[in-house]
Write a structure and sequence with these properties.
It is built from 4 helices and no strands. By secondary structure, the protein is mainly alpha-helical. It is globular and about 40 Å long.
Length: 72
């Protein structure tokens, strides 16, 4: 498999979480469907479920991206 595809798979969860974060900010969590996130990210719904077991897990990852880094 070409290297560019391997690298892309490594970044895919963050891309999906970022798309979910954008949509949740625009519409709210309840109004955001996994299909909407897939469309925003340019992937299929199945791709999202390859990386996240549920919508809740996807939203959790999105919220993790939005959390400011801890100071220490």
């Amino acid at each position: 498999m070409p290297l560019k595809f391997l690298r892309r798979a490594d970044f895919r969860p963050d891309e999906l979480a970022r798309a979910a974060l954008e949509l949740c900010a625009e519409r709210g969590v309840q109004a955001t469907r996994v299909a909407d996130v897939a469309e925003r990210a340019g992937v299929t719904v199945g791709t999202i479920y390859r990386y996240f077991e549920s919508k809740d897990a996807l939203v959790d990852a999105a919220l993790e991206l939005a959390r400011p880094p801890e100071r220490g």
